[in-house]
Amino acid sequence: MANSTNKALIEQSRQFAENLRILLNNTVCDSATIAARIAADQHHAIVGTQLTGITARPARMRSAAASPIWLDVMCRLNLDEDEGTFLTVQASVCSLLVGDEKIELLHYDYERNKARYTEAHIQVNARHEAFERHLAETRKKGINGLNKIHLLVGGRRFRPRPGRPS
Questions:
Q1: Are the CB atoms for 149 and 141 separated by under 8 Å?
Q2: What is this structure's pTM?
């Protein structure tokens, strides 16, 4: 990878991290830190909340509740394959966690070129008695089956694409 490409990846990743930091701290957080790091392969950047090395940690969200609520964001970025100019998200996950134990409530996943299911989906870590009964009747999923369901939120540009499994 050329040095100018590395510089572009670093610069654009840092700007992306700064924009995300400003967005979060102007809306749902008070003191979230967002950082960008270049991965060991030098072809990807990692952007995330409370980043330590290339590992993201949850940032506390603003809330009037006594128990804390957390947001954990991590993105794997690179420059586009066509021109090597534009910052591209290869994968990302955004999780909402609750309590001191940071138990996941839901997460939003995106993975470019995902084959088995839609690139962008939400999974909810919750119980729903009627839905679990339905799943048991169809022998599809069991207890806590809701968290195994990938709820379609669209394709690469957040638009559903016909003909793709969801």
A1: yes
A2: 0.81
